[in-house]
Design goal:
3 domains; 363 residues; four-stranded antiparallel sheet; Alpha-Beta Plaits; RNA Polymerase Alpha Subunit, Chain A, domain 2; Gyrase A, domain 2; five-stranded mixed sheet; 15 strands; 28% strand; alpha+beta; disordered N terminus
């Protein structure tokens, strides 16, 4: 027998539960229009900052959709936009302190500047090297000084007989990605004309440090992939969104209280307006910077003066590219992937309704 159950209602004052009140027209639209019709009516994308302090950053406003659409774009950016990365490493010589598998892992995480549209995906069964699927890079670095193989020799038989495509060994104590050399094969020279070939995004990434006489000789094959298969294919460092904050003053905040309010906010959302002889008054200067930390209303009484809310269908979306592709191109690619998913879903539903085996109907 169950005992007596008492219901307790806990007040949830988390900022995620507070939204900006919609206008009268928006309330009517929510009652009369379907979600697709509302999106078609209100959807808007506004670029806020492209580049800013960094060329690989993009911040834009996504308006008129709910969190499912924004999160779908974020997940696609992280895991389903194709890029090119090092997939196979053939180690001919490695006398450094770093083990072969660790060195290969470090090489695989190097971002490669290459247009993924120039490559084709490799099937699940793998396949032989082909100019349509593979891009080859070589590296041969040796540190100066006496070599273990003797004066003028190499530390092992593999390095002695290995030939780079027109290159020579580089004497250096620090192996950086700038030492990697692209070796085109097939028709890649013509196909990559104007693209700059395959090269690392940054030339100063440190791979290994070498002692005198140590040597690294390797061949690397780059292939097209997506972040769902491995994180090295993910084209973004971060892809995130947040709801647009709305900060309003319910009443005038003047004098000493204005200075106190400005000092409360760690992100300088508020500012002081000089009224001349009438004193000072607080104003909301940078509402987009608000993170809903609630410091301004934490103390008793301030919630009657300051209102914090967020717009439910207005997202501030940020993309930071690793550097393989500009963030604008990544956004376009993610939208294209989302459209393909929608088309595939529609085709599957229509095939189900018509009684067709979807797997057999698809090419």
């Amino acid at each position: 027998m169950l005992g007596r159950v008492t219901k307790y209602r806990v007040k949830n004052d988390a900022p995620s539960e507070v939204f900006e009140a919609a206008s009268e027209q928006e309330r009517k639209d929510r009652l009369l229009l379907s979600y697709a019709e509302r999106v078609e009516k209100t959807l808007d994308v506004k670029a806020v900052r492209s580049g800013g302090g960094h060329k690989n950053e993009l911040v834009f406003d996504l308006v008129g959709v709910d969190a499912s659409i924004a999160n779908a774009l974020r997940r696609i950016l992280l895991a389903e936009v194709a890029t090119v990365a090092i997939e196979h490493v053939y180690m001919f010589m490695n006398s450094s302190i770093i083990h072969d598998e660790i060195l290969a892992h470090r090489l695989g995480l190097i971002p490669i500047m290459a247009n993924p549209r120039m490559f084709e995906f490799v099937g699940d069964e793998g396949g032989e090297q082909d100019e349509a699927t593979d891009g080859v890079q070589h590296v041969r670095v040796q540190a100066g000084g006496e070599k273990p193989g003797g004066p003028g020799g190499h530390a092992g038989p593999y390095a002695d007989g290995y030939e780079l495509c027109g290159g020579a060994a580089t004497d250096h104590e620090r192996l950086q990605v700038g030492a990697m050399e692209w070796c085109p094969h097939g028709d890649q020279v013509e196909r990559f004309e104007g693209e700059g070939g395959l090269r690392p995004v940054h030339d100063d990434i440190l791979i290994a440090k070498l002692r005198p006489g140590q040597e690294i000789v390797a061949e690397m094959h780059c292939r097209k992939g997506i972040g769902k298969d491995h994180a090295k294919f993910s084209p973004v460092a971060t892809a995130s969104y947040r709801l647009l904050p709305v900060v309003t003053l319910k009443q005038e905040v003047e004098g000493q209280e204005a200075e106190e309010l400005v000092a409360k906010c760690p992100l300088n959302v508020f500012d002081i307006e000089d009224l001349g002889g009438a004193g000072k008054r607080a104003k909301v200067a940078r509402p987009r910077d608000c993170t809903m930390c609630r410091e301004c209303i934490r103390e008793p009484g301030w919630s009657d003066k300051v209102s914090l809310s967020r717009v439910a269908d207005h997202f501030i979306f940020g993309i930071e590219s690793v550097g393989m592709l500009p963030p604008k191109e990544l956004l376009k690619d993610s939208i294209q992937v989302l459209r393909q998913k929608c088309d595939s879903m529609i085709a599957e539903v229509e095939a189900f309704e018509s009684g067709i085996d979807f797997d057999e109907a698809m090419p």
